[in-house]
Fold this protein.
Amino acid sequence: MFRKYENNPVVRKTEGTFYSKYAANPDILEFGNKLFFYFRGQDENNHDQMGVSTCSFDTFNGVTWDETISEPILKVNPDPNAYDSNHILDPASAVIGNKVYLYYSAHSLTKPHSVSLAISYDGINFEKYGNNPIIHNAVVPEVIIKDGLVYLFYQRWTAGSKGVSRFYVCTSSNGIDFDIANEKVVFEPDTESQSVSTNRIYEEDGIYYSFFGNNKKYKDYPESIGISRSKDLINWEKSDNTIITRGKPGTWDEGALWFATVHKHRDTYYLWYEGTGTANKRITEKDILESDKAVNESYGGYGKSSFSQIGMATYKGRLSQFFK
């Protein structure tokens, strides 16, 4: 398994910032001579917006960043009827034609959610695509470029309060116009899972590894992170092994884990993830009740006593060992 960093979380909710309430949804990108760490933040205005931190390859340690942009780089639209008037979250970035394409989940106050796109020449200053959304009724994008095609993965939900999530994919030659008519279901829950969440893909030596949230009980409250692999991005082999599991009751990640994002630096794999929990150590009777709620209920106490932050875990070895 990956080993959690002892001083987690590494990106904490911080008073006076746009991520004073939540810091979540990590995504990392190599662009130019830097690493870009995209994440979502929420403050007391209760709107998710997108932020970024950067560092050089020389200073990288997975924990500290040379710079964190003080303002959100993607903000919600003040027009309540806009496609992204409520939340902008779930970043998925790729370099296409020397520009950064940043796909994201857009939530509206009046319209169904969608996958939308913003484009940047420097990885920081983005312009939203003029014909957003690019995929309707979908969330949690992930993007991979293979053999000149842009593969865009996303989640769709089945109907009902106990609906489940499936991972879909469709392709594009330019990163904008996707072949939705030929989208495919590439991953869905098995007999041991209620649902799957937040697909993140890492490529190494021609093998693609998907790190995803395993939901045994609820549709989007994963207790652990699993791993699967593929050579063609369509057919996936799921491992029986678990990458990381949520923390003990009373810790900051006791509730659920999402968005396991991987980057390899030298001989070490770095994995960042969103976790939620109370971090109250279960000292008082109230602490115990709030911790139990975070552990045992879907989004139990979320936004009141349980809050998302970003942690890190590391691993030295071969990813193929998870499939033995």
The mean pLDDT is 95. Helices lie at 285-296. The longest strand covers residues 22-31. The two ends are 13 Å apart (CA to CA).
